[in-house]
């Protein structure tokens, strides 16, 4: 699947986030001099997941955020369950409201 130059830049930075850490749409967009919505659009179209770990991007307020193009509050919740499972397998935990429990898991050391 062909990706745009912008998507490639997003995916390159995503690969820098270590397992067990999370970053935010805002932090990634700041590193790219872009917008959180543009980052979300690239993540929604990520054909390389989970090797390119879009599941490690959450909202700046510590909430789980969307996944696979589905918003955080989507009725099915199937994608949220998968995102939570992937993050839990890396040691990143959320409370029953979907908020990040351990703030030491934040990461924003992107090398552009």
Describe the structure.
It is a single chain. The chain is mainly α and 112 residues long. The protein contains 4 helices and 2 strands; from the N terminus they run αβααβα. The chain has a two-stranded parallel ribbon with strand order 1-2. Helix 2 packs across helix 3 (36-44). The longest helix has 12 residues, at 78-89. It is globular, with a radius of gyration of 13 Å. The mean pLDDT is 92.
Sequence-ordered SSE layout with sheet pairings:
Elements: H1 5-14, E1 23-24, H2 25-32, H3 36-44, E2 57-58, H4 78-89
Parallel strand pairs: 1-2
Helix pairs in contact: 2-3
Brief summary:
The chain is mostly helical and 112 residues long.
What's the β-strand tally? 2
Q: How many strands, what sense, and barrel or not for the largest sheet? A: 2 strands, parallel
- Regarding quaternary structure, what we see is single chain
Strand percentage lies at under 5%
Which key terms come to mind for this protein?
about 110 residues; two-stranded parallel ribbon; globular; mainly alpha; about 5% strand; 4 helices; about 35% helix
